[in-house]
Design goal:
The strands form five sheets. The chain has a four-stranded antiparallel beta sheet, with no helix packed on it. A three-stranded antiparallel beta sheet has the order 11-10-12, with no helix packed on it. Strand 6 (55-58) and strand 7 (64-67) form a beta hairpin. It contains no helices and 13 strands. By secondary structure, it is mainly β. The protein has strands spanning 2-8, 11-18, 24-27, 36-41, 44-49, 55-58, 64-67, 75-78, 81-84, 91-93, 101-103, 108-109, 111-116.
Length: 135
């Protein structure tokens, strides 16, 4: 189980969370970060919201939300980025001032760090947790 830490150009900007409509959003408070579990299946990795039947999913217009297994999207880690298997695009913020997340390279692309539950978290993360060194 882990939290998905989000970074923009080497600066920590928050974590993956969700709004009341079950869309993926950038949250600045770790208490609002979702706990995720990887679910490898048939050559892809799906990310399930812990203790739920919902999975990270890309909508037809590249927005990211949480849906049941039948609509789940696979994602691939490519270095510091999380890439949608559906669109081939990186996890991004819709704009620098928006909290909504999408999978589109034309937006504000975000780097990701997978933070296992129980590790030290926050803007002052040690170098070992920075996304460029996460494996």
């Amino acid at each position: 189980m882990f939290r998905l830490s989000l970074w923009r150009q080497g600066t920590h900007v928050g974590w993956l969370g969700e709004n009341c409509a079950e869309w993926a959003v950038l949250v600045p408070d770790i208490r609002r970060a979702l706990l995720l579990e990887p679910c490898p299946y048939n050559g892809s990795v799906y990310y399930q919201v812990s203790n739920s039947l919902r999975y990270l999913t890309v909508s037809p217009d590249a927005c990211i939300g949480f849906y049941n297994w039948a609509n789940a999207s696979g994602f691939t880690r490519e270095g510091r980025y999380l890439v949608s298997d559906d669109t081939g695009q990186k996890l991004a913020q819709q704009s620098a001032t928006s909290e909504e997340l999408c999978a589109w390279n034309g937006c504000c692309v975000l780097e990701v760090g997978f933070e296992p539950v129980g590790t030290a978290v926050g803007v002052g993360l040690s170098a070992r947790l920075r996304p460029q060194t996460m494996r």
